[in-house]
Each structure stands twice: as structure tokens, then as C-alpha cells.
Amino acid sequence: MFRKILIANRGEIACRVIDTAHKLGIRCVAVYSEADANARHVRMADEAYLLGPAPSKDSYLRSDKIIAIAKQSGAEAIHPGYGFLSENESFAKACEDAGVVFIGPPVGAITAMGSKSAAKDIMAKAGVPLVPGYHGDDQSDALLSKESARIGYPQLLKAAYGGGGKGMRVVWKQEEFNDALASARREAKAGFGNDKMLIERYLTKPRHIEIQVFADNHGNAVYLAERDCSIQRRHQKVIEEAPAPNFSSEQRKAMGEAAVKAAKAIDYRGAGTVEFLFDEDGSFYFMEMNTRLQVEHPVTEMITGQDLVKWQLLVAAGEQLPLAQDDIQLDGHAIEVRVYAEDPDNDFLPQTGKLTYLRQPEANRHVRVDTGVVENDEVSPFYDPMIAKLIVWDESRDRAIARMLRALDDYRIAGVTTNLSFLTSLTEHPAFKAAELDTNFINKHQQSLFAPANKENNQALVLAALFILQQQKAPQTSCNSFSPWHFSHGWRINETPKVDISLQHGEQSSVLKVQQLQQHYVIDVEGQQLCCTAELNGDELSAVLGEHRTKVRVSRYGDTISVFIKHQRYDFSYQTEVSTEVEGADHAGSLTAPMNGTIVAVMAKAGATVKAGDTLVIMEAMKMEYSIKAPKNGVVNEVFYAAGDLVKDGAELVDFSPEEA
Ligand code: MV4
């Protein structure tokens, strides 16, 4: 087994590989860009080397630097993760030439799967089912037109060197073919430098089911069940699960054996994924083979109990597969969602920014979080804005769904917009629960998935105000202007302390009038008087709003208050300049203690002339400081207490005469 490996990647997959490598006693070398200097994977590694500036082309794609660092650090092997150089045959070759083991398939396998048409040729010879169509080298218009007519409609035009759905065109009838071909060719030429086309019968409601395969250097190859990855958006997987729902053991065996045949056909080594289109009638067809460990591999690990990165390391080190096909047992159901910094309400625009608050669901045998970030990390614009993968397992799919919904509620992130609410909408969707899956799921349920959430939430507004009020109950070292009780006007004996709390949510501005009584608050919300109590423990706010008791999490960063109610996050901007109205008071006469407390400081001096808003006395009560301020310009006639004195509710503190109007 290796003593030291280099991980040529970043983010969650780099952390994940390091985690397993460390469990095997293998030392890890990380590489990083300037933007990742303090990244989690760098901190987890035993040593780390700077690659260069943030852009991938200057860092994580710099094969030469990565291999040089491997040699320099004494790393015997390189794990490429996924993306970046993981399916780059030149990189795999360069590793070989440098005498560094590439933890992945042989170069030839990567090459073979690089072209869809070449891959289909190989699969056809291996007896792996293909969608009826044409993937030959004759690309003349006449031949393609003849093949198009033979295959029938609807049909799909695909770029042989395409990926991720790019360069695909659906042709519904013959008259559309020529234009579609010309357009698809242009896009393929521009996107991939090669306009070779395939034509296939178009499956209108397929599922995406893929098989995890593993092969070693001793002729062994197995499949580790399947994953259903049908729920995608613009060819990006969003939810993955294993095993595939409504998929029989016979179908598993048939598809698994086809996948092993595919792997053997290209003399595969290591972890691979064979993707199939699964049609409504139960037939399945080879789509493509990925020659890397997939993002979604954890769902396979959760139902098989196997560590696939460990398998990769064993195989790359020349060992045999840990299990034979008959030893692979499946247990339960696993679901993975990809947590992204993106805005589903703005066409999933990627988001960047600081993760000012980050709380993950508690990890246990049912919940796993694979992440590359911690609180206060920046989501940078240079890389994929994935924050984490959230994976759950339970004995059944229904229970796994329930676990996922709870875990999504417990996943709280502030500072950037995320897709967490969208993931909840997907997971709780009746069609998802009913396993009515196909690759068009999100488009089909667009209306219900993107229904405008009740963003204006008075409950969240009141909770934000209560958080502000309660947060001031922590010991105050100074009179903190964040406190709503930092009055610009004083109050009088028979007046309960009143404060206006001004909060902005999006375009919506609200001012909540709060009265503080002995044991509770009375908050005026849109003319409704709401009696509230609250208790704050860290970020957990327990509150009673009228008859409703609730417990939510709240975070504050600067003047942004984020209230988390189930899977929704409500951000409020708190205008700390608080205007207070002492209703009914004529601002004249004595100023009194609003409640029992202790005098902290006396600024007022008998005979002194003061201005409206000058702090005359500061007192402390219920671990909160209250500034008693001059309600108007005027004169302090007499001061009745000194610092340290105890005062009772209503005690006269200062005799004050406002100047004549
Ligand atoms: C198809 C298809 C229907 N019929 N081929 C999308 C990109 C690449 N993975 C292949 N894709 C498809 N090929 C035939 N003959 C539908 C898709 C497809 C799809 C496949 C899997 C997962 C998501 C998808 C989203 C749109 C289209």
C-alpha cells in the first residue's frame, strides 16, 4: 500500500479522499491555488503545495506542476478526484511516464471512452445494449439523412465528442432534420472542435440509471448496484439515490452484468460508472461510461457498506478487489443532494460570498455530510459553487426521504443564497415521494417546485425582533448601540419602556413597536398586539408568540439577522438607529427607572444644561443596559443616585426641566 499520495483536487472530494487515506495510514499531499490557501483540504493534509493563481488553468489543471510536486514530495500516487484532470488521458499518461501511479483507469480506457461513437462501437461488440441508431464514421449529409429516415422519429442528434447534453438536438420529424444537423454540427465544432454526429431513437421519458463498477489488476470485475440520477437540471445531477426505486433485482443483475461487460471490453481498472437510459418498458441502453469516481458515489457506499476510495487505493496499489460479486450485499436506501451556493429563484445563478454562518446536520449512521468548507470560508467565483453533499440512509426509501427532509431543515447557511429550500421542495414533492422519476422531472413540475414561497413572513419578522431584544440580555461591557434600549429619548415612571425596531427584508421595511413589560414583550405587528416571551441560548431562540410556541435558529452577522424557520431562511437588515417614542409623555419632569436595577453610570450633573439625546444615566437590569437620555434640550436640576446604587422600578432618577419651547 502507498505511504504517501497526492490529491490533485480541492473541495469536498479532496477532503473525502484524505479522510480515507488517513484511515489507511497513508500520508497526504494537498495542492492548492492562492484562493484556497486556507481551505479545509489544505488543513486536513499532511503537507500542501501552492500551485499558482486561482483560475483552474493556472492551478488545478497544471499537470506539469502537479506531477513535479508529486515527485518533489515523494508521493507515490496521485488521486485526481473528479472533474479537473480526472479523465484527462494526457495527464494519466504523464503520471505513468513520471513513474507516479495514476489512481484511476489505464490511459487506454480513458481514450476509449472519450468519444461517444468509439465507445458505442466497443459496447456494440461487447453485446452491451445500445439505443437503435447510427454512430458510424460516414458523416456525409446523404448518409446521415438516409440513416435519419431509417431510425424514425423522434430521434436525437448527439455530438460524438459532446457531453452534458451539449450539441444535442431532438428531431421530431424528417423536415426538421437538415436544419437540426447543421445547427448541432456548428455547436459541436465550436464546443468540442469536432462535429461528428450520432443519431439515436429519442426516448421521451427515460430514467438515468447508472451502475458502479470496479475492476482490479487480477481479472476481477464487479458491479456494486445502481444509482438513479434522473433528477437533473441542465444535465447537472441534483438528487441521486441507491438503489433505484421500482427496479427489480433481475433488472439489477441484467444491467450490472452489462456494465461489467462494458468494463471488461476496455480492460478497465479501478472505479467506473456505466450510465444507462432506462426506458419505460424496462429496456435499458448504454449512454456513456465515466472513467472516474463519481460525485454521487456515497449513496453506493451507504447501501453496500463499502468505502469506494479505499477500493481505489487497494486496486491502484495492485491488490485484489475486497469482495467478489456474490459477497456484495445491499441494505436500505440512500439519497444524496448537492448543496450549492446558487439562487434557484434567479435561474440558479451561482452565488459567491462568505459563509457567515454554517451549521450542518449532526452526522451519524443516517446522516453524512461531505464538504470542503467551514464557517467563514468564501465561496469563490473560480470553482464549482458546491458547498457540500448531504447524504442520508435509512431502511426504506420513505424513511430516507424523511431523514433527508429533517437534515435539510437542520442544514443552516447564511451569507450566501443556497439551493437548500429548492432541495426540500424536490424531496417533499409528491411525485418524488411516489418515485415518478424521469430526466424531465424538474421541467415537468416547474410550477409546484418554484411556487413563490411565503417570503413575507411576519413570524420571522417578530422572531428577528425578539432575537435582537434577547441578544442584549448577554452581559454588556459597554452601552452597545446595537441594543434597542439605547434610547435617544428617556422614558417616565408610568410609561413602560417602548422601542421601535426597524427591520428590512428585501424591499420590505417594517417597524415593530415593542413594549417591554415585566416578564414579556408586547409587539405591535400590523396593528395586532402580540404578547411574546423569548429565551436565547446561543443561536437557538425559544419564543412564545401569542399562543404559538416555537424554537428556531437565528444568526447575526453585522446588522444582518438570519432567521431559519424549517428550510427557509429569512434575512433582515436591522437599522440599529432606533427612534423611540415615549407615548403620551410631555418629556417634562422627572426621569425614572423603568424597572428594578443597578445604576451603572451617572453622566448628569445638577445644574448642567443638556441636549436632547444626551445620556444622563445608565442602568443595568436583566443583564441589559438601559440608557436614560434627555428627552429634550433642558437643565438637570437634581440627580438622586450614584453609580452602584440599587433602584426600584419607578424610582425618580433625575429631576429635569426641558427648555421653554
Ligand atoms: C438521450 C435521451 C433520450 N433518448 N438519448 C443527456 C446527456 C447525455 N447524458 C445523454 N442524454 C440523453 N440522451 C436518447 N436516445 C435523453 C437524454 C437526457 C438525459 C439523460 C440522462 C440524464 C438527464 C438527461 C436530461 C436530458 C436528456
CATH homology group of the largest domain = ATP-grasp fold, B domain
Name of the CATH first level of the largest domain: Alpha Beta
Number of domains: 5
The number of helical runs is 17
- Uncertain parts: 475-481, 486-494, 577-588
The average pLDDT is 91
Predict the CATH topology of the largest domain.
Answer: D-amino Acid Aminotransferase, Chain A, domain 1
Bin the helical content: 25-40%
First CA to last CA: what distance? 89 Å
Radius of gyration, taken over Cα atoms and rounded to an integer in Å: 32 Å
Percentage beta strand: 25-35%
Ions, cofactors, ligands: which are bound? ligand MV4
Shape: elongated
CATH architecture of the largest domain: 2-Layer Sandwich
Give the number of DSSP strands: 39
Task: Tell me about this structure.
With 661 residues, the protein is of the alpha+beta class. It has 5 domains: 4-103, Rossmann fold; 134-201, Dna Ligase, domain 1 (2-Layer Sandwich), CATH 3.30.1490; 207-449, D-amino Acid Aminotransferase, Chain A, domain 1, CATH 3.30.470.20; 458-578, Glycoprotein, Type 4 Pilin; 589-658, RNA polymerase II/Efflux pump adaptor protein, barrel-sandwich hybrid domain (OB fold (Dihydrolipoamide Acetyltransferase, E2P), Beta Barrel), CATH 2.40.50. The chain contains 17 helices and 39 strands. The protein has an 8-stranded antiparallel beta sheet, with helices on both faces. Strand 1 (4-7), helix 1 and strand 2 form a beta-alpha-beta unit. Helix 4 (89-97) packs antiparallel against helix 5 (107-114) and helix 12 (397-410) runs antiparallel to helix 13. Ligand MV4 is lined by residues 131, 156, 165, 200-203, 206, 208, 232, 235, 277, 287, 439.
